[in-house]
Amino acid sequence: MSDFIQKMSNSNLGRSVLANLGLPTPIELRRFNPAQKTFFKGDLLLGTAKGSELLDQVCANLKDSEARVYFAANTLLSGVVSDAITGANIEARQIHAEKGHVKEKFRALVFDATGVKTTEGLKELYDFFHPVLRNLAPSARVIIIGRPPQQAATPEAAAAQRGIEGLSRSIAKEIGKKGATCQVVYVENGADQELNSSLQFLLSAKSAYVSGQVITVKKSDQVAMPTNWARPLEGKVVLVTGGSRGIGESIARVMARDGAKVVVLDIPPAAQQLEKVAGEIGGLPLVADISAKDAPRKIADFLKNECGGVDVVVHNAGITRDKTLANMPAQWWAMTIDINLSSEERINEVLLGEQVMNDNGRIVCVSSMNGIAGQVGQTNYSTSKAGVIGYVQYMAPRLERGITINAVAPGFIETAMTDAIPFMTREFGRRLNSLSQGGKPVDVAETIAFFSSPASSGVTGNIVRVCGQCIVGA
């Protein structure tokens, strides 16, 4: 079902009515178009703090984009920025970034804050962002790059780097009315080369409904850059559970778009729709009930015999059985925990233990905002989705052979399930985020595709909320 308020905001009369009612007027988010030649196009302003270390890496990455790069000529560090730009062999323009004097409308602001090691040093972020935040274009991107506070050499540095996260989340809330987003990327020491995939995803239109998030990039010995950024999963085999409809179908289609051979799995009652989706994307259907005792064996044998192994496993299948805890039948509790959580553990145990998953593989689990914030009448569902997060965080440092594991936590995503929600409740749910609108299944799929990329070898143990910076649980 379409967003009634968003449709109203597309006309002058509608905007006037919404304004008089005090309601938000969400803009249509700029999402990825396969016709785009590069991950980013538009005006981009670069900044850096004194002693920062990743600007050269950022500039080298921008060489593969269609960015018109700017830097502030009136800052003390303009020479440092200029040198990084020159070293990357990209063109850039100087601007005088006094407040009220900037005329450009930036599609991105990128600030390297890895050199901020004292709380006084946080003033450098204020000096960069203060004059230009009003000059953001619709659906703009703001990215702050730092070092993980846990790796800081001093308590002052830890405090300063953790402060960046609070700044980022607040900026995201201030600019969300423009459809703009803000994120932090913490890059561990020695992981500089692994920054690229996170930077490209967050600058791109693929991250339209991701905002106020923190991604940590870790050092990896398995860096494998794709030869074609438009089809990074070329030659890869991807398993998507619950892939016949909704978010799962969108995941399967995006994975196929990115070049993968997709094995689409769903339960017997969904077999007809499963065959349709698999046929349309050139994939393989696999009918199986993931809660069955023989499911891990059936899945592993299929992947070995039909595909020679698997590179990416997306655990998307899940159910809801909603009642307050006091009224919930025991079988509803058991069924939800088993399908949403325990089945993933069992399947992974076989695929990893028998090395059906290939080296440099990817595991992506679908959690939920309700696993973070909880929800009335969903104690079983929230427990299972919180358990997914715990599982991912435990497994990440223990996986070998270059295999990564991450999770997405969707918020209000427009699906057949949300269409069934009563009108006023649905409208309220859509507005409870900084972007004032619901997300689309493709937003979840794009984030999963980012985790799945061969270039994301340093991205593991992350829980990224695809929720437009939902106010609940933020």
Automatic annotation (TrEMBL):
It comes from the Bacteria. Residues 236-411 form the Ketoreductase domain. This is 3-oxoacyl-ACP reductase. One of its GO terms (molecular function) is oxidoreductase activity, acting on the CH-OH group of donors, NAD or NADP as acceptor. PANTHER family: 3-OXOACYL-[ACYL-CARRIER-PROTEIN] REDUCTASE [NADH], SHORT-CHAIN DEHYDROGENASES/REDUCTASES FAMILY MEMBER. It comes from Pelagibaculum spongiae. Belongs to the short-chain dehydrogenases/reductases (SDR) family.
